[in-house]
Amino acid sequence: MRSTIFSMTSDRLNKMRNPPHFPPKKQRTILLVDDSEVDRAVYRRYLNKSADYDYHFIEAETGKTALEIYPNALPDLVLLDYFLPDIDGLEWIRRWQQKYNKNPCPVIILTGQGNENIAVKFIQLGAADYLVKDQITAERLNFSVQKELIRQEEKQKFTQIIQSQNEQLLEVNRLLNEQMNCGENSECSLSNNKKKLHCAVFNAPIPVLVHAEDGEIMHVNQTWTELSGYTIEDIPTTAEWTEKAYGRKQKTVKSFIDRLYELNQRVEEGEFKIRTAGGQFRIWNFSSAPLGRLLDGRRLVISCAKDVTEIKQAKIAAQQSEIQFRQTFEQAAVGMAHVAPNGQWLRVNQKLCAILGYNEKELLEKTFQEITYPDDLEPDLAYVRQVLSGEIESYSMEKRYIRKDNACIWMNLTVSLFRNQTEEPEYFICVIENIQKRKNLELSQAQALKRLSNLHQIDKAIIEAQTPQAIATIAINNIQDLSTCQRVSVVTFDSQRQTATTLVTQGIAEQTAQQGLETNLNLWQTLIERLQASEQSYVVSYLSQSPQLLSAMPEVAVSGLDCFICFGLKLQNKLLGILKLWVEDAQEISAEQLTMIEEISIQIAIALQQANLTQASRNYALELENKVRERTTQLEEINQELKAFTYSISHDLKAPLRAIQGFAIALQEDYADKLDELGQEYTSRLATSAEQMERLIQDLLAYSRLSRTEIYKKPVNLTSVVNKALEDLEIQITEVKAEITVDRPLLNVLGNRTILQQIVENLLSNALKFTSSKVKPQIHIRTEEYPENVVRLWIEDNGIGIEAQHQERIFEVFERLHGNETYPGTGIGLAIVKKGVERLGGRLGVESDVNLGSGFWVELPQIKE
User: DSSP E strands: which ranges in 316-363?
Assistant: First the structure.
């Protein structure tokens, strides 16, 4: 019986059971809209890594270009940059939906900035996903794109399947109805109906199962096997079918199936979860109908199923999407609402309620017109009319709402219109952001800018002004621009002279005010004490309560002014004066104005102090200039005396010294035979002393010339200087048999050749002189290069050395560490070296160990060749 109804070919079964392992990639087209070529290249590289899809990319740099090429390209998906050169992503989607709503495809937004408010707007407009560029990876981009492509493919597949199934189900139902209406004596051709039924059931696009009341399954059609994986050989009975497909629920389902044989009409059984032969779970929606009796009397039932797994999943996804939208709506950091075209609030989130101070019920009973600030209502309604008429698709504006507590609050409102399928307006989608803090900040910034501008003008005036009166005038002009006052005055105090001086007055009765009027400081003492005792920088006073001030301000007595605000001009706790602001009512001056005037008073105090310091500085400079002039005169007189003294040494002292030397030599040469031994000794000492006196005079003259001579610096070859010094000291070097080594070439320096010659010869002479008679003199001359372009000249010896405590004093005039008998000299040589180095702007020093030798060094600027 079974074989006479339906059968399946083995080839079809083999194809079904052995699908290809590596299906070809699916071809899909992506419209890539981004003005950054680099970003487009990155997205192409990411998407080309897909193992399932082969993408064809169509690229556009502007939104307008993308809209133009869309109908010809008909992409499967759009990747859209939010910030485009011509329009933003929100506007692009609105235009796209308006033009191509019959051929929609998923749109994924790409943006460089993650913004929850913008994301909500895109979701409301129907965007599929929203990705932040900095967070995009190849895996994330492929997942998002493939998810939307699969969803689109399934949607198309379901549409096609449902259309085909509906058509074929209509045919099956028609044949079943004919079969049921044919009795045993009917003239209908039963054989013909069986053939038609066989063909319809076998090719039905839905799973079909024919079973008898004893549980035997008579037929399983091709679709049943393809979707469940079970052939008729796998499930020959309903018991085996329920065991494999339902598991532990077998008995329940089996008993339900057994009741189907009692039916006399078609019945909808509902949805059941089955397990396929591959172990997957699917949801089938079953319906069954009686099919008559077999020849042996068994009743037949035909059961049809519809696989609704994807539909159920789509519904669950839609429910989750709705839940996600509700959560986004309710938990958004900004106010969100749906508003009817007449202005009635239809739906509001908790954030909006919190911003406006109403609970949800209270707000839903109102219209947006009722809580809009009157001045902002008409601009808002004008936008609403434009949106309803189709002139614009959306609008944004900053407006004020009136809270429940009647406080006014600034909001940023973004509105778009949702229309139904007949294009009738249904409700407005509103995103409402609290910008009150920003508005407060803008107001504070504007006030701060105005304040800074005024202070800048005063600062500029302070720098340019030459007198305190001019500074006070500029400051008063700014005060009158900032506040509503009748009169402003600046008064300065002089505690030494015990006077108060009115620098400048502007306002009521200023024509009769005496500029520069001086009054006794005692008249202001009460006001001064109040300012010093006050915790604020100002005090409010009344002329009617201070009669002693009437004599200081006689013109005010007849002007009708009474109330004034007095600001102290303080600097470092010193009261330099006061700024008086005359007003009708002190309450009319705001705290902001008081703060600005306080800042101006500080500027005036600084300016007055600077003016005083400038004058004092000028006086001091003048005094100092006079002292310098007197000192210069004294120095010139001393210099003239020094010149005269030098001349006296050079001429007046040398003349008798030459006579002494001449007579001593004459005695030695002409009267040697007439002098006894003691006389000859006296004569020799006389000649030696005269010679030493000659050297002393020469050294003093050299030292004096170093102090007075004008120095001209230029590059000097140290090698040449040292060679000349060795030549000049050749006799002395030969006498002591000194061994001298020079590391030639020596580095060049910036200096004066004559002075350097004196320095080197004095240092060499000392090295030759201060050596033990038991030691052969050894002298080493070298140069070293130091940082900052400095050269150090070394003259090192193996002489007697210098103790550490004497290494500084040896450079002073007439400082000697040894007697003249042991080491003869004038005690001026090293002083000449020091003076010469100082005149050249260099440094010198010595490193020495007793009995081991000394190293004298001189530092001068280096000259590169």
Answer: 335-339, 345-348
Candidates 285, 290, 263, 7; CA nearest to 176 is 290
CA-closest candidate to residue 119, choices 105, 131, 107, 133: 131
In this structure, what are the phi and psi dihedrals at residue 242, rounded to the nearest 5 degrees?
Answer: -70, -30
CA–CA distance, 708 with 461 (Å, rounded to integer): 50
CA-based nearest residue to 58, from 90, 30, 100, 26 = 30
Q: Taking CA 373 as the corner, what is the angle to CA 371 and CA 374, rounded to the nearest 5 degrees?
A: 110
Tell me phi and psi for residue 106, to 5 degrees: -65, 145
The C-alpha atoms of residue 606 and residue 571 are separated, in whole angstroms, by: 7
pLDDT tens digits along 448-460:
777 777 777 767 7
Does pTM top 0.85 for this prediction? no
pLDDT tens for each residue of 663-682: 777 777 777 777 787 877 77
pLDDT over threshold 70, residue 373: yes
Residue 519: closest CA among 494, 556, 544: 494
Indicate the residue type of 604: I
**Distance set, CA 574 to CA 531, 721, 859 (Å):** 12, 66, 53
Q: Which of 805, 825, 803 is nearest to 814 (CA)?
A: 825
387 φ, ψ to 5°? -65, -45
Within 10 angstroms of residue 762's Cβ, the number of other Cβ atoms is: 23
- Pairwise CA distance, residues 641 & 224, whole Å: 134
Pairing of strands 129-132, 107-111: parallel
Q: For residue 152, which of 43, 323, 30 has the smallest C-alpha distance?
A: 30
**Closest among 492, 491, 461, 497 to 478, alpha carbons compared:** 461
Give the helix ranges, DSSP H, for 114-237.
116-125, 138-181, 190-202, 222-228
Contact by Cβ (8 Å): 93, 100: no
Using pLDDT thresholds of 50, 70 and 90, give the confidence band for residue 129: confident
135: Cβ contacts below 8 Å, ≥ 6 apart: 114
**Cα three-residue angle 680-681-684, rounded to 5 degrees:** 85
What was the pLDDT predicted at 318? 65
Q: Which of 38-52, 116-130, 793-807 has the highest mean pLDDT?
A: 38-52
Question: What are the DSSP E strand ranges found in 176-298?
Answer: 208-212, 217-220, 267-275, 281-293
Tell me which residue has tokens 């500080």: 602
Question: pLDDT tens across 745-770, in order?
Answer: 999 989 888 888 888 888 888 888 87
Nearest CA to 552 out of 595, 505, 599 is that of: 505
Q: Examine the pLDDT at 190 and tell me if it is beyond 60.
A: no
